[in-house]
């Protein structure tokens, strides 16, 4: 065997070894999937999601389903084959782990962080809804419970659920018009709707669970259209009051915003 052939063989072996190492080495990515949807007007895992005291509430029909994603945790081992598979599947998304979890978080800390975000989101969503209805949180008490689902992205749906239970459409009817409506979006106390990420996976979760209308933060229309389930209608929203108006228009057959 010539020295050149021997050197080529050694180089080939080194390259193959490096490729094998890359294929099986853990990488700093997280793989996300469509998660749960939960009707904020009803129960989730046997517990009422919205409980209101201090003011009369109304019976509602239809559903307001918040949509979530699930992602591999910060301690999970994600390798190159997982990433390649995720890139080619429409029901998965590959994201840098720091875009999903705070840097340095363990799985336990990530759960704690997400639940803290959810509790904060619930407080803000309550204030947004009561501000919209011109009611005081000194008189009206709201308890929200989504179990172990974390993060702030249910804020908009929480606010809509509170409004529907307290006032409906303002004319004796439901905001939903009896339909199964899903959506996502953060909310501020002033009623501004914010982007959340993962919307293409959330529309898939909503479609899987029977929703035909999806409320999406206006800035994420393009992402929501990427893998939109057949027959699903996107309604872009940017404020709580605008969302309520859109739902009323949807129910009455009026002009509804579109992506």
Q: Helix segment count?
A: 7
Fraction of residues in helices? 25-40%
User: What name is given to the CATH topology?
Assistant: Ribosomal Protein S5, domain 2
Whole-number tally of structural domains: 1
| Overall 3D shape | globular
Rg, Å, rounded? 23 Å
Trace the largest sheet across and list its strands.
6-1-5-8-11-12
Estimated share of beta-strand residues? 15-25%
Q: Report the structural category.
A: alpha/beta
Under the CATH scheme, which class?
Answer: Alpha Beta
Level-2 CATH architecture? 2-Layer Sandwich
| Number of E-state strands | 12
Ends distance: 67 Å
Pfam family, one: Lon_C
Keywords: Hydrolase, Protease, Signal
Enzyme class: hydrolase
GO molecular function: serine-type endopeptidase activity
In words, what does this structure look like?
The chain has 259 residues and is an alpha/beta fold. It has a 6-stranded mixed β-sheet. Strands 2-3 form a two-stranded antiparallel ribbon. Helix content is 38%, strand content 21%. It has 7 helices and 12 strands. It has helices spanning 3-24, 80-88, 107-133, 155-166, 199-208, 221-225, 240-252, and strands spanning 29-39, 43-44, 47-48, 50-53, 63-71, 93-96, 141-144, 180-183, 186-187, 193-194, 213-217, 233-237. The termini are far apart. The protein has one domain (26-252): Ribosomal Protein S5, domain 2, CATH 3.30.230. The longest helix is centred in the middle third of the chain and has 27 residues, at 107-133. A hairpin with a 5-residue loop joins strand 9 (186-187) and strand 10 (193-194). It is globular and about 55 Å long.
